[in-house]
Amino acid sequence: MKALREIAADSAERPYNNLLRRLNAADYALIAPHLSPADAAANDLLYNPGDNVDVVHFPCGPSLASYLVANEDGRDVETILVGREGAVGGIVSQGFLPAYTRIMVKFGGPFVQLAVAKLDAAKAKSRTLDNVFARYADCMLAQIFQSTACNAIHSIEQRTAKWIVSMMERADGDNNVPLTHEQLATLLGVGRSYTSRVIQTFKAECILEIRRGSILVRAPDALKARACLCNESVKDHFEEVLRGVYPTEEAASG
């Protein structure tokens, strides 16, 4: 029991990032001296395509980062969101490699930064540390696969509900999601008019209401019922590969 309490206390003293809290004490000690706290605002740019990826960014608390892929028509389409369950930039790469996508801050808040060179040096000293980040990379790849399938087969209504539910989970169940019509349209890869139509449908069903710069979810259970099961598939994979890392209602209330 004493050992369990010590582990819990050690985890609580770390940044509020589940991936960092998943590391054992010895592995965390290898990178802890090199972690730098930072605050980021919504729409801050972390990487542009072609930039050298030399820093890993760990979102903390409700902070979110987003991967955006530019299309030939000039629109950006968001592929996945990364919150406190993970990190962006240089997770498994060796050396400074160019970024493929644009990575931006979706929801502002605290981040922790770590130089890729320091992470690579730490992974070279610890197979268990290297394994954790390799497992996280596998989970991120699963998110990309699921997002691709979701965009191909699910309706705009299902995907809208999925994205909003995903953001609520990462915000510890806060029903007020700081999401605009334009941001939601980018998530869905559609025009603003399509997004407005879906939002109006949900509003008419008393599932949510629109506030300035945000969406207030009035009926979370009804919204979840309208969502596809893609979030659940991703969470199931996280639980198999990195148990306890993906934010859930149980984790938030525990």
Structure, explained:
With 254 residues, the protein is an alpha+beta fold. Helices cover 47% and strands 21% of the residues. The chain has a 4-stranded antiparallel β-sheet. Strands 1-9-4 form a 3-stranded antiparallel β-sheet. Strand 5 and strand 6 (76-82) form a beta hairpin. Helix 4 (116-125) packs across helix 5 (127-153). The longest helix has 27 residues, at 127-153. It is globular. The protein starts with a helix and ends with a helix. The model is unreliable at 1-8 and 249-254 (pLDDT under 50).
Fold blueprint:
Elements: H1 2-12, H2 18-22, H3 25-31, E1 36-40, E2 45-47, E3 52-53, E4 55-59, E5 64-70, E6 76-82, E7 97-98, E8 102-107, E9 109-115, H4 116-125, H5 127-153, H6 156-170, E10 176-177, H7 181-188, H8 192-204, E11 208-211, E12 214-217, H9 220-226, H10 230-241, H11 249-253
Antiparallel strand pairs: 1-9, 2-8, 3-7, 4-9, 5-6, 5-8, 10-12, 11-12
Helix pairs in contact: 4-5, 5-10, 6-9, 7-8
